[in-house]
Amino acid sequence: MTLSLTSALKPSAALSVSYLERRRLFFTLMTLPAIIYVLVIGVWPLAQGIWFSLYEYNLLKPGRTHFVGLSNYVDLLSDAVTRGAFVNTVIFTVGAVTVELLLGFAIALALWRDDRFNRICLALILIPVTITPLVVGLIFRALLLADYGLIGYYLAEFGISDPRGLFANPSSALATLIFVDIWEWTPLVALILLAGLKALPGDILEASEVDGATALQRLRIIIIPLMLPSILLALTLRTIDAFRVFDSVYVTTGGGPGNATNTLMLHAVKQGLEFFNIGRASAISNLTLICIAVIAAGFILLIRKADRKANGR
Fold first, then answer.
1. Which of 134, 199, 238, 269 is most buried by its number of CB atoms within 10 A?
2. Which residues make Cβ contacts (< 8 Å) with residue 223, sequence separation at least 6?
3. Which residues contact 83 (CB under 8 A, 6 or more apart)?
4. What pLDDT digit, counting tens, does each position of 21-48 carry?
5. Which residues of the chain are under the pLDDT cut of 50?
6. Domains in the chain: ranges and CATH
7. ∠ CA(49), CA(53), CA(57), 5° rounding?
8. Is the Cβ–Cβ distance between 251 and 243 less than 8 Å?
9. Residue 47: which residues within 8 A CB-CB, separation 6 or more?
10. Which pTM was predicted?
């Protein structure tokens, strides 16, 4: 009887193994196009950029291409324009993200109560996020032009801005670009923080209110500590995105006046597409990528630490 049971089970086991193999093969084939897409669109250009950054490679002088190792990276450290672009990028990132976080948190608190009016307000304030940065830059450039801009004309007329316009003045151009970024991306930060607020445990907040805690005390002692993962997530996304800003700067100022609004990504594009210095452009792009990777790694560690602390682990 034992032999008959064993012989009866053998085909079923073989069928199960065959089914699992076919299932594994099916899912492998299904993911193959995505893997190829990532390799072609992401990994290959990245590897090619790293390779080009090790060469003196100018499209106008292809015959003089030669291996220079890390010389392109070393030259960037002594290049005043690159250092200025890095400083502009840091100022833009810190200024924009800081204000976006504060304003976004204030908007999230204002829209915390779930009613029809707040839902309508949330839908309306999310409109800027749906517009691409390129179009946003063109809109603000048209609005702030001193000669025929709807806002810029009156600012110049009443002496509030430079007669040439806010984007044409070195002292106000970068601040104006920061304002444009704040206008566009503060609603996204507010949405992320609002989701974090709605996920807070209501019993803890109700207990603190019963115990007589003021709104400021609840905000400082309960809400902000429990909101740290959401706050750090918003900071991570916006910092990475702001550090690689290009579109809005390109269509509004083009890095000018002079190099007052030149950023790392814009500087890389200029080196590659205007001066055809592919080696230098690749080195600048890789430098930007390294900075973004360091920022992302730091924020990820902070998010994990905040999440463990919020969950009491």
1. 238
2. 197, 200, 205
3. 77
4. 888 888 888 888 888 988 898 889 889 9
5. 1-3, 5-6, 8-9
6. 70-311 (1.10.3720.10)
7. 105
8. no
9. none
10. 0.86
